[in-house]
Every structure is written in structure tokens, then in C-alpha cells.
């Protein structure tokens, strides 16, 4: 029976999923009904419409926003996305996810998200710089190292973060490297940031396989989505001895039961090539990839890829969510009934915010760590957080997803309660 789809509200399936998981955790934790709206709703959001001069001398007006969900535990933290289809409802949902992610791995951050409605591929480098600097000025009311620290997301990267940091520094009159994370190392970026999400996901996925009685050495893996998260995860899983048998992007994918050469596929994509140009593998669709008989499935593309409509086709024994809300609640219920072990998004893909926290700390202290230190500290955080979630799941006889949300919501609720309401 499909129950969730009727609950989709405010124009975003992702937001409805995020609020669904909060509501369950609040009920299980017996949080007072009067306190729930403060945790469920967005604290503040800023919508801006701003002009940018284009290379032809004309002007275009763009719309952007910055959303903060909760800052009870510390400054807001979250990415900035440049995408033609991003909506304010999406940003609300993703800001809420960032709150729970930071809490479940015990970082002193709240959650934020933002973006600009634009196709960055349609802009020249100069246009992208002017857009970024103007957008930064518009949202500078909210952002800063003690208030809200942006990071890269879809459509943005280290260069955009450099422009943001420089713009805020020009306003301040001195360099403010801790104002953003995901920067180039030349201006205070951290070692290990680029592959952080994949490294964190690999750490918890390998542990989940062991918990399921599966030897990671030679375990088969399918990765849906071959962007930064999916490609780095596939590469690191392969380096850990797992066998990547299938990958896909928005146009389809590849399958080879003997294993794919991930390095070759990454080089192909970096050169602008297509999976269709790769030889020695069978073509398959994204839906076919989700139904493969593999030990580990990593959905790292879009939200709601596994639903009640296709969850019964999924044959993987372990799933680690590389994308936010990759499995909707109805799909989740089907997989739970079949005893599929799911490492939820708010735990599985937190490596990025963990190393962003490391970058922020290094910038504030002006003391920088080597790659070995960063990767070792990341592993320590991910292992500790996974063990904490697993222990709660066992003690409460529940899933890793519900345990993770219970831990995160409880921490934010406790911070909100002890701070009280001002005035």
C-alpha cells in the first residue's frame, strides 16, 4: 500500500521526505508537540533577484536564495547550487538534511542550503564570476565564518568558492578564508576535500557489508550516478578491493560482471566522452542498474530513485545512499520488509561536511593538516558515527535510518531546549 505520495507537500518531494523522517523521529523520541514546529520548519530564508552584465553588454536578472533551517548547535553550513531546476522548496529540504547530517556526526553546525536558478554551462567564465560575486554580495547579509559557511554543490566548485571568499574579504577589508569551504588549497582549502564524500561513504559501506556477513574483498557494487560523489566512491571502493560491475550517468550505464576499469571511465568522462564510447561492457539503463543482483548498491544520482514502484526489483543486500533521499519512504518500507541493510543519506554521505568542518577549523586556526591527517580524522568520525547509529538501531530494534534521525533530532532538540526562546 502506497502511503507516502499523498503526503508530498510544498512542491518538493525531497522536502516531504525530509519532513516525514523528522516527524517519525519526533514521535519516537516523544518530543513535545509544542516544540516540534521549531525543529520542523525553516528558521530563515532570503530570496534575491539580481542583475548580471553579460558578455554582450546586456543584463539578465537571476533569482537566488539562501535558506537556514536551524542554527541551535552552531553556524549554518551547506552548499550553493547552480542549476536551472533548483527551487526554494528544494533548498528548504536540503537545509534540513544538512542540520541532521551535522548532528549525526556531532559537528557544531546547523543546516543551510542555497543556489541560483541558472544553467552554469550556458555562462562564460567571466559571466559566472560576475554572477557569483553579485550573488555573494546579495546574500552577504547572512553568510560569514561565524554565521553561515557556504560550500560547493551541483554546478559550483573550488573556483566559485574562491570568488565568494574574495568578495567577502573585499567587503571586510581583510582576508576571511573561513567564510567558505571547498576552496582551492592556495587560499586555505583543505587536503582531502574533493574526495571526502566518497571516502566517508566507502568507510561506512564497507562496515555495513561486514555487518551483513559479506566479505568486502571482491564484493560486487553498482553505482548509479557518476558525478563527483559517484565517481570518487566507485574509485575508492575499487581501491578497497571491491568489484565495480556497473555504473551509470543520466544517459545510461555500463555493466561488466568481471569488473569495470573505474580509472579508465573517470578519464573518459574528464575528457568529455560518453559511456557509449567505452568498449568491453554491456549497456544498461538506470532502472536496470538498480535491479542488478549485487552485494552493494550506491544510488548517487537524484532523489526518489527507489520507490514503491521499483523497490521489489532491487536485489542488492546493502544500499548506501550517496544522494539525498535516494529512497523514498514507501520504497524504504518495501526494502525493510526484505531485510535490506540501508545506510541512510544523513550518515552515508556526510564525508563532505566533515572535511568542510576540518577546513573551517584549519582556517580559523591558520594551522593546516596533511592529507593523511585529514583522511585519518575523517575515518575516525565516520567509524564512530556509524557505530553509534548501529548501536542505537540494535538497542531500539529499528533501522539505521530511524536510529540516525533519532540521534540527530535529539541533539538539535536538546540544544534548542537548553538555549530557550529569546526574548
Structure description:
This protein is α/β, with parallel strands linked by helices. Among the domains are: 42-187, 3-Layer(aba) Sandwich (Rossmann fold); 196-343, 3-Layer(aba) Sandwich (Rossmann fold). It has 14 helices and 12 strands. It has helices spanning 13-29, 36-40, 88-104, 125-139, 158-172, 196-211, 228-239, 262-270, 286-290, 329-337, 345-348, 351-365, 371-396, 400-419, and strands spanning 44-53, 59-70, 76-83, 110-117, 148-152, 220-224, 243-249, 252-255, 282-284, 296-299, 318-320, 341-343. The chain has a 7-stranded mixed beta sheet with strand order 9-8-7-6-10-11-12. A 5-stranded mixed beta sheet has the order 1-2-4-3-5. α1 (13-29) packs parallel to α3 (88-104), α4 (125-139) crosses α5 and α12 (351-365) crosses α13 (371-396). The longest helix has 26 residues, at 371-396. The protein is globular and about 55 Å long. It starts with 12 loop residues before the first helix and ends with a helix. Residues 1-11 have low confidence and may be disordered.
Amino acid at each position: 500500500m502506497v502511503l507516502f505520495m499523498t503526503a508530498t507537500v510544498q512542491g518538493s518531494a525531497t522536502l516531504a521526505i525530509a519532513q516525514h523522517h523528522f516527524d517519525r523521529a519526533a514521535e519516537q523520541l516523544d518530543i513535545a508537540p509544542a516544540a516540534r514546529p521549531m525543529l520542523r520548519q525553516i528558521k530563515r530564508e532570503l530570496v534575491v533577484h539580481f542583475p548580471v552584465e553579460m558578455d554582450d553588454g546586456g543584463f539578465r536578472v537571476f533569482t537566488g536564495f539562501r535558506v537556514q533551517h536551524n542554527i541551535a548547535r552552531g553556524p549554518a553550513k551547506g552548499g550553493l547550487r547552480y542549476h536551472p531546476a533548483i527551487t526554494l522548496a528544494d533548498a528548504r529540504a536540503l537545509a534540513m538534511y544538512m542540520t541532521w547530517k551535522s548532528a549525526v556526526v556531532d559537528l557544531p553546525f546547523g543546516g543551510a542550503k542555497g543556489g541560483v536558478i541558472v544553467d552554469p554551462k550556458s555562462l562564460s567564465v567571466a559571466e559566472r564570476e560576475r554572477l557569483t560575486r553579485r550573488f555573494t554580495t546579495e546574500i552577504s547579509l547572512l553568510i560569514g565564518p561565524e554565521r553561515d559557511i557556504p560550500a560547493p554543490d551541483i554546478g559550483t566548485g573550488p573556483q566559485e568558492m574562491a570568488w565568494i571568499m574574495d568578495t567577502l574579504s573585499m567587503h571586510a577589508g581583510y582576508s576571511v578564508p573561513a567564510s567558505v569551504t571547498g576552496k582551492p588549497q592556495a587560499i586555505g582549502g583543505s587536503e582531502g576535500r574533493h574526495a571526502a564524500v566518497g571516502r566517508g561513504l566507502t568507510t561506512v559501506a564497507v562496515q555495513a557489508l561486514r555487518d551483513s556477513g559479506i566479505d568486502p574483498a571482491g564484493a560486487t557494487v553498482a553505482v548509479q550516478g557518476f558525478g563527483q560523489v559517484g565517481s570518487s566512491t566507485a574509485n575508492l571502493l575499487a581501491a578497497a578491493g571491491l568489484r565495480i560491475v556497473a555504473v551509470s550517468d543520466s544517459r545510461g550505464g555500463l555493466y561488466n560482471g568481471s569488473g569495470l576499469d573505474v580509472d579508465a571511465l573517470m578519464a573518459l568522462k574528464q575528457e568529455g566522452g560518453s559511456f557509449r564510447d567505452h568498449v568491453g561492457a554491456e549497456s544498461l539503463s538506470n532502472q536496470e542498474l538498480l535491479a542488478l543482483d549485487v552485494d552493494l548498491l550506491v544510488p548517487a544520482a537524484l532523489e526518489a530513485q527507489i520507490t514503491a514502484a521499483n523497490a521489489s526489483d532491487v536485489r542488492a543486500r546493502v544500499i548506501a545512499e550517496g544522494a539525498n533521499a535516494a529512497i523514498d519512504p514507501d520504497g524504504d518500507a518495501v526494502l525493510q520488509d526484505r531485510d535490506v541493510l540501508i545506510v541512510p543519506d544523513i550518515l552515508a554521505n556526510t564525508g563532505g561536511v566533515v572535511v568542510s568542518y576540518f577546513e573551517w577549523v584549519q582556517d580559523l586556526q591558520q594551522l593546516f593538516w596533511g592529507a593523511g591527517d585529514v583522511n585519518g580524522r575523517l575515518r575516525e568520525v565516520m567509524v564512530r558515527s556509524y557505530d553509534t547509529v548501529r548501536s542505537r538501531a540494535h538497542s531500539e530494534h529499528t533501522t539505521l535510518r530511524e536510529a540516525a534521525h533519532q540521534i540527530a533530532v535529539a541533539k538539535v532538540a536538546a540544544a534548542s531546549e537548553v538555549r530557550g526562546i529569546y526574548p
